[in-house]
DNA sequence: CGTGCGTTTGATTCTTCTCAACGTCCGTGG
DNA sequence: CCACGGACGTTGAGAAGAATCAAACGCACG
């Protein structure tokens, strides 16, 4: 998404679809952001049994689709995804953007099939975690059980935040909140908090924020006029983060 | 919410705040809607140890507040709740309405404190489930573990549906979707699917749907003019459920 | 019987959507 | 190497939807 400060994240090492290669969680530099948060070295070794393989997903490909049988969760290792749910008439709503260390597929547990599409927005790779295995291991492994529950709960809290955004905020406030959220997550991954390259189109941003693509474009232009952002297509530089923060804090005020 | 067809649900039997009384899940007629879904009689006995007490919550009272330490989940036994998250400036967003058999408090797991307010919209009672106990029991009790994961996942899927509603639908479509969802849930609990009494104000409906209360009121009036609903204050009769269904299916079309 | 909250309805304003045209970037093939 | 095409992005003008402001009504409760 920007200039990596943690250069040891493999940028793109795979080209096939399935890799039986084991990748040790203990040596993965995403361990502080991913499922293993809070696990010590001994715990991490036990966790490694969970991740049986990696899968690489080229840009534009689906990791899974609405209706697919649910079997596994996916931890993003490299790359960037969107998830979207479709309405009966064909239009859809982007429900989230996922980056390294974030978990995909939690929606599938509810009825053994996925309820959204997950699409790679750039060439990506994920760790495949068989859900049965996770259930089994978390039964005898308290820390993992709790961590998994936390991740699901965090997703619920995040969704509630999006509802607040969609229900109460105006276009400028929504885009400001979106950009602040992105930069914070990038920063947690060692990237610059002021410079980012958007991996999604204006339409995808609009779908996520409940806006039309023209409104997203106009709002970017306004932020540029106001000196809050520098916008060169998808290359965004945040010039005045506090202005964005003010917009979010004063939302619906 | 309407005429009960399952009259053995205790209507309102408690007045104190805490009741050490045990209520057997096995004999609770909500067991098909609540945490015990899919458990057999033997399983149910083991589950009973979980629910240590009931708590009654008078109309208007908080079950928990944003920031409260998280310790327990709550299964609605009787009554009706809303949950809402607050923005930094004081305005808030209703994130859901919960009725008998539904679980409250899942948001708290993520960081050991609640991230929303839960308020009773009528005199209510809940079963208190200590989260530590649930964690422990679900470790040795596969069916419960899976059922709990399903409930969390279902909440995530529900939230995504609300995002779709807030992001893509117009006022009429939102209210139609809201009413259909309510009547379906009431029907599952043995109430009439065409007649209901709203427990929440126009403002609370509006907050949930991302609309102002005047817009909610106007939309109710329009549905009445169109012969889709009969609206007498909070007493709603659905005259043409298919018209509501059409609005939802054609959403954003 | 009055008071107050919740609701309805109307007039107006504001934001965002819609429709349309044009511009830019980038990969492809001549 | 350049021309072309297509996807993506920007900008403008007008329309539609919902918000806002304001007033009056009804019902429940004390």
From TrEMBL, chains A, B:
Gene Ontology CC annotations of this record: cytosol
Superkingdom of the source species: Bacteria
Occurrences of domain HTH crp-type (ranges): 169-242
UniProt entry keywords in alphabetical sequence: DNA-binding, Transcription, Transcription regulation
InterPro entries listed in its UniProt record: cNMP-bd_dom, cNMP-bd_dom_sf, Env_Response_Regulators, HTH_CRP, RmlC-like_jellyroll, WH-like_DNA-bd_sf, WH_DNA-bd_sf
Molecular-function annotations in GO: DNA binding; DNA-binding transcription factor activity
Domain Cyclic nucleotide-binding: start-end pairs: 35-105
Pfam families: cNMP_binding, HTH_Crp_2
Protein name stated in the entry: Transcriptional regulator
Organism: Roseateles puraquae
The organism's taxonomic lineage, starting at the top: Bacteria, Pseudomonadati, Pseudomonadota, Betaproteobacteria, Burkholderiales
């Amino acid at each position: 998404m920007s200039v990596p400060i943690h250069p040891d994240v493999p940028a793109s090492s795979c080209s096939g679809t399935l890799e039986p290669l084991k990748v040790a969680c203990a040596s993965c530099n995403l361990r502080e952001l991913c499922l293993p948060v809070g696990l010590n070295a001994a715990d991490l070794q036990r966790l490694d049994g969970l991740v049986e393989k990696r899968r690489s997903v080229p840009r534009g490909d689906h990791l899974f689709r609405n209706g697919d049988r649910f079997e596994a969760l996916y931890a993003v290792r490299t790359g960037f995804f969107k998830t979207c749910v479709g309405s009966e008439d064909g239009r859809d709503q982007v429900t989230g953007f996922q980056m390294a260390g974030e978990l995909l597929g939690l929606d599938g547990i509810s009825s053994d099939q996925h309820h959204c599409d997950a699409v790679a927005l750039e060439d990506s790779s994920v760790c495949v975690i068989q859900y049965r295995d996770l259930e089994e291991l978390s039964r005898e492994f308290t820390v993992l059980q709790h961590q998994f529950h936390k991740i699901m709960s965090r997703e619920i809290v995040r969704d509630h935040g999006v509802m607040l955004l969609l229900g109460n905020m105006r276009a400028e406030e929504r885009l400001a909140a979106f950009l602040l959220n992105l930069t914070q997550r990038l920063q947690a991954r060692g990237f610059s908090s002021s410079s980012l390259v958007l991996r999604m189109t204006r339409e995808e941003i609009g779908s996520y924020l409940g806006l039309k693509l023209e409104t997203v474009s106009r709002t970017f232009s306004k932020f540029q006029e106001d000196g809050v952002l520098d916008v060169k297509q998808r290359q965004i530089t945040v010039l005045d983060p506090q202005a964005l923060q003010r917009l979010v804090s004063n939302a619906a005020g």
